[in-house]
Write a structure and sequence with these properties.
Length: 723
């Protein structure tokens, strides 16, 4: 019968086994991680009416209230995991298809036999062993062969709490324990798809068991607990069963929690509310795929480490066996010595020669025993020396990785700040040139406007001059007409004179009077026209003078405009030259920014490569120890500086505006960056001068103010305070 693959995105379909209505027997299959409340939940299900196995695994110091699981099933599961080159605390991916079919058939038969012996023909029984999480597809096939309907209950717990509990019970590193938790969760959740299932949260079971168990009761049709059962459950469940309870907030603050673990826990919370939440199952699928990639990538390395561990254990076991053999031999020899001594005492008087031989034999045996003990001590010393050298190399590797990571972060911050300053300087220079160009353009536009206004005034004066010219021509025409009229009067006068000569004396008198009258009218008319002509000539002269003055003004305005145009062209050429220089500087700055960006990207790639490496993940516990040591050291330095009175936080923040942008407190910024950059903590201490004056302080790598507080003050070194 084929085994469902754990690695698939959904369990394989078994068309012939979907008719579960014919199966009357049911199994409450508890699929939960170690230290996640599986034992407590199994006991509660037993109190609710599900049958427990006849042969229970006995309780122990870590689980005094009992495990409530079949002892033989746990043993068979250990053998089965060993067949797959795995064990109960392995977090590597299992390939159940790697089992040969005859071996699968053997274990199928063996497990069915144990289930029949432990549960008989029970209509509803509860089966629990955390190892089944890794072997769930095999057990689901076995239950189907037995015509038993699986009703799956999946208890889960905060992974940080579970990891800490495993660390206390088995000494497993919390980081590896979280990987162990993630593997059990991914395998069991995937295998349970397509089956009736309920997710139970361990914390909720302890805080409000009626509400949490009621979800299981409704899902699987279990009988509700009566007063007696409720009292037993109350007595059995208590908060002391949960040795660690840091709450969900620790998931956000604990640095050992990986992204996979965090996403998987959030998905479990969603499935707790809705066991068929598609989005949560997709999140678990994504986390499992990424986790499998890591698992496959480091599998060979982990196997190598495991081989080394087994070899070390084998050597230790051989050493212990050898030591035990030597001790047994020594005990035997000691017993022989005692027998010989008794025999010597009884035959002292008669066997003096035998006494001498026995003494020699005793000395020889003691020497041999001493030599064996010396060999054993030397062997132990060699093992300890190798262990110390191994620990030293691992510590150095972790310190180097932490230092590289810190240096990369410092370089990222330095490059980012330098790029921001260069961009700000370029933007300021371009903005200044743009302001100057805009001001010159406004001045040119104003000058052109004034020139256009002057030209309009000249045009108006020219129009007025042309109008006066027209008036002059009209007056000249009138003057010509007046002269013609005077001529006509003179002609009439001559004709009159001729008539008078002909008519006699009376006519002469009339002619004289008429001549006088005509002469007076002529003189008056000539005088009037002469005055008008003179006035016109004066007006023409005034207009001519005005036109000349305006022409001079126009010439001056044109000269000023020409000078302003030339100055504008010069300013424009200068500004264009400065703009071109600024553009060249901008291109050089862009090129520099591009180079620095490439350097930052290169450093980022190198950092990401280190962070993705298997050695980085495997040394996570050691880096954590290094970080804790650095934090403790920084906390100590923080307290020493704060109590010294030589650090002025307000003054430091005001003198270094970038401190506020960094998001760090002034003292932390000075400890991490300011002191090594030569920034002063207050007016009473100068970091750069202290480092320059005392080269041994710079060589030590210690913060200058911390050095002064710890050593410099006692050594009478000068803080070089400002006056």
């Amino acid at each position: 019968m084929p085994i469902t693959e754990v690695q698939s995105e959904a369990p394989k379909k078994r068309p012939m086994r979907q008719r579960r209505s014919r199966h009357t027997r049911k199994c409450l299959l508890v699929l939960g991680m170690h230290r996640s409340g599986t034992s407590a939940l199994t006991r509660c299900l037993g109190l609710l009416g599900a049958d427990l196995p006849l042969r229970l695994m006995p309780g122990g110091d870590s689980n005094s209230k009992g495990h409530w699981e079949p002892e033989l099933i746990a043993q068979v599961n250990d053998h089965l995991l060993s067949e797959l080159n795995s064990r109960w605390d392995d977090w590597q991916r299992l390939d159940l298809d790697a089992l040969p079919p005859p071996l699968v058939a053997h274990y199928n038969s063996e497990i069915q036999k144990i289930l029949r012996e432990d549960y008989g023909t029970s209509k509803r029984f509860v089966l629990k062993d955390p190892r089944i999480c890794r072997l769930a597809p095999l057990y689901l096939d076995i239950l189907a062969d037995m015509k038993v309907v699986p009703q799956i209950v999946l208890p889960f717990r905060n992974p940080v709490d579970a990891a800490r509990s495993l660390n206390r019970r088995n000494g497993i590193d919390p980081c590896l324990a979280q990987l162990f938790w993630l593997r059990h969760i991914c395998d069991s959740e995937l295998a349970s798809r397509g089956h009736p299932r309920v997710f139970v949260r361990y914390e909720a079971l302890l805080s409000d068991w009626p509400e949490e168990l009621n979800r299981v009761i409704k899902a699987f049709g279990l009988p509700k607990p009566d007063e007696h059962v409720s009292k037993e459950i109350d007595i059995f469940l208590d908060r002391e069963m949960q040795s660690f309870d840091d709450g969900e907030a620790v998931m956000e603050t604990d640095e050992t929690v990986s992204g996979w673990t965090h996403r998987a826990f959030k998905a479990l919370l969603a499935l707790h509310a809705d066991p068929d939440d598609a989005e949560a199952m997709q999140a678990l699928d994504a986390a499992r795929r990424e986790f499998d990639i890591l698992s496959d990538a480091v599998a060979s390395h982990v196997r190598s480490l495991e081989s080394e561990r087994k070899a070390a254990l084998h050597a230790a076991a051989a050493e212990a066996e050898h030591s035990h053999s030597l001790q047994a031999r020594y005990d035997t020899l000691q017993q022989h010595h005692d027998d010989l001594r008794k025999y010597r005492d009884s035959l002292m008087s008669a066997l003096e020669t035998v006494k001498t031989v026995q003494a020699d034999e005793r000395q020889r045996l003691l020497a041999e025993t001493a030599q064996s003990a010396a060999d054993l001590a030397s062997l132990r010393k060699d093992v300890q020396t190798r262990d110390q050298e191994h620990d030293r190399r691992i510590s150095k590797l972790a310190a180097d990785l932490a230092a590289s990571h810190e240096q990369a972060q410092l370089k990222d911050l330095e490059h980012t700040q330098k790029i921001e300053r260069l961009v700000a300087d370029r933007d300021a220079a371009v903005a200044g040139l743009q302001d100057q160009l805009a001001a010159a353009a406004r001045t040119h536009a104003q000058t052109v406007g004034e020139l256009e206004a002057s030209r309009a005034d000249v045009a108006a004066l020219q129009e007025r001059l042309e109008s006066l010219g027209s008036d002059k021509k009209a007056l000249e025409a009138d003057l010509l007409a007046a002269r013609n009229k005077i001529q006509e009067f003179e002609t009439s006068l001559q004709e009159a004179e001729e008539s008078i000569r002909q008519t006699g004396l009376q006519a002469e008198m009339d002619r004289t009077a008429l001549t006088d009258r005509f002469a007076a009218e002529r003189d008056a008319l000539v005088s009037s026209f002469t005055e008008q002509a003179d006035e016109t000539a004066r007006q023409m002269q005034a207009l001519t003078d005005t036109v000349s003055a305006l022409s001079e003004q126009v010439r001056q305005v044109e000269q000023a405009a020409e000078a302003e145009r030339m100055r504008f062209e010069q300013d424009s050429a200068r500004l264009q030259s400065e703009a071109e220089t600024a553009r060249q500087q901008g291109r050089m700055l862009d090129q520099r920014i591009s180079e620095m960006t490439q350097q930052v990207q290169q450093l980022t790639d190198e950092r990401d490569s280190v962070l993705r490496s298997a050695s980085w993940r495997l040394t996570a516990p050691f880096r954590k120890l290094v970080r804790l040591k650095l934090r403790f050291s920084e906390s100590t330095h923080h307290r020493e500086i704060e109590e010294s009175g030589l650090f002025d936080a307000s003054w430091y923040a005001a003198s270094n505006p970038d401190v506020a942008a960094s998001g760090l407190s002034p003292i932390v910024h000075y400890l991490r960056y300011g002191g090594h950059e030569g920034r002063d903590p207050s007016v009473h201490f100068r970091s750069a001068d202290y480092l320059a004056k005392y080269p041994d302080v710079r060589a030590s790598g210690l913060n200058p103010l911390v050095h002064f507080i710890r050593f410099g003050r006692q050594e009478d070194r000068s803080p070089i305070g400002r006056s």
